[in-house]
Design a protein that fits this description.
Distance between the termini: 54 Å
Number of helices: 3
Largest sheet: 3 strands, antiparallel
Helix content: 40-55%
Shape: globular
Order of helices and strands: HEHHEE
């Protein structure tokens, strides 16, 4: 009898959670460079870069906050450095 393995659940485009985390870490690095160059990045730009993938989008915001960036809020939807 086969059972579903919860660790390999497919997210958007068939990616696993670990693959989503790796993509978010790569996006984190490129966004940090953009923030340093432009001063800020809007949430809509991040969503477009994440290809409207909610898991990658949220993980990228989480990693940016972890690395010391101000990720904004609903009244100020932008990411900038402190």
């Amino acid at each position: 009898m086969e059972s579903c393995d919860v660790r390999t659940r497919a997210y958007k485009n068939g990616k696993t959670f670990d693959e989503c985390r790796q993509i978010a870490e790569k996006m984190n690095l490129t966004l940090q460079e953009q923030i340093q160059a432009k001063g800020k990045v809007l949430w809509t730009n991040l969503l477009e870069q994440a290809d409207h993938d909610e898991i990658v989008y949220k993980l990228t915001l989480k990693y940016l906050r972890r690395d010391g960036f101000d990720i904004g809020n609903s009244k100020r939807p932008e990411i900038k450095s402190f």
